[in-house]
Amino acid sequence: MKNMSKNILVTGGTGFIGSHLCRYYLEKKQRVICVDNLSTGRRENIADMKKNPNFRFIQHDIAKPLDVSEKIDRIFNFACPASPPRYQKDPVFTFKTSVIGSLNMLELAQKNNARILQASTSEVYGDPLVHPQPESYWGNVNPIGVRSCYDEGKRAAETLFFDYFRKYGTDIRVIRIFNTYGPNMDPDDGRVVSNFITQALHNEDLTIYGDGSQTRSFQYIDDLVEGILKMIENENDFPGPVNLGNPDEFSVKELAEKIIQMLPESKSKIVYRDLPKDDPRQRKPDITLAKEQLNWEPKVKLEEGLKKTIDYFREILKQRNPKAKL
After folding, report:
1. Which whole number is the average pLDDT over 36-51?
2. 269-314 per-position pLDDT tens digit
3. What percent of the chain has pLDDT over 90?
4. How confident is the model at residue 3 (pLDDT cuts 50, 70, 90)?
């Protein structure tokens, strides 16, 4: 982006990824409008930004139309519950956020002639029959399962984005985010990294669902933000979709063992529970397209990212309970 100041709108801006984007653009002296209904976002993630005169927070549900007085230049659509416990809590709300929310943001982009980036997800691949997953793979998704409010909601949102691109020429960018972790995560969001770290810090047993052989690829937040920025500013008319994830693949059991190893003072052990319905058996991005189109690939190794995340969680949990030994 050139030096001239732009108006950046981030939906889901108090959330894990959205708050990192808000902070990045404020540091670049851009004007940031953070939109969030606070259903899963955290005010703490933007508390320090509220003092910045270039920052404005709007509490709003994007399933309802949004109008702002400023001319918007960039829209990042990150509004949607993203962890299984959160998005399954109110599946109708989740689906409306993905689909109607995307429609409203596309209309806002049209009105402002703005470039808009959609945060899609590796969940569009479902429980994949192709490994690793390239963008050309159409997926293996249960359309009526307990996860489909999120999986099919994100797939439908991609449909809307590409229909607006073809019909109206809307300037779109679509990314498919694979498992991401790091500071600003909610310790209680129910994702596997936050679950394991929080349990280990509290000397609770680490809960693995299934036998732990299911695999995931864990990407540190700094790598993802770099990929997002390269995607939104790519000028070669590449709309995506593009996978943004770390192709280093680990089993869930390996992740649990690594976190226990990194916290030698923890008394936690590993326990096993039944695997949730439709939980993917394996997940690994093919990032060939990201390398070719964006010159992007992740750099942060798992242990390095986990150390920073553990330090962040320890501080957050201490603030919540100063008497706790963490």
Report:
1. 96
2. 999 999 887 778 889 999 999 999 999 999 999 999 999 999 999 9
3. 90
4. low
Q: Which of 112, 322, 21 is nearest to 314 (CA)?
A: 322
Give yes or no for a cis peptide into 241 (omega within 30° of 0): yes
Tokens of 68: 């702002």
Q: What are the angstrom distances between the C-alpha of 282 and each of 126, 213, 217? A: 10, 9, 9
CATH for 7-184+218-247+282-300 is 3.40.50.720
Write down the catalytic residue from 25, 87, 125, 150: 150
Both structure tokens of 44: 């703490």
Residue boundaries of the structural domains of the chain? 7-184+218-247+282-300
Give the pLDDT of residue 22: 98
150 is a catalytic site residue:
yes
| Three-state DSSP string of the chain | CCCCCCEEEEECCCCHHHHHHHHHHHHCCCEEEEEECCCCCCHHHHCCHHHCCCEEEEECCCCCCCCCCCCCCEEEECCCCCCHHHHHHCHHHHHHHHHHHHHHHHHHHHHHCCEEEEEEEHHHHECCCCCCECCCCCCECCCCCCCHHHHHHHHHHHHHHHHHHHHHCCCEEEEEECCEECCCCCCCCCCHHHHHHHHHHCCCCEEEECCCCCEEECEEHHHHHHHHHHHHCCCCCCCCCEEECCCCEEEHHHHHHHHHHHCCCCCCCEEEECCCCCCCCCCCECCHHHHHHHCCCCCCCHHHHHHHHHHHHHHHHHHHCCCCCC
Q: pLDDT of 149-200, one tens digit each?
A: 999 999 999 999 999 999 999 999 999 999 999 999 999 888 999 999 999 9
Judged against a pLDDT cut of 60, whether residue 205 lies above it is answered with yes
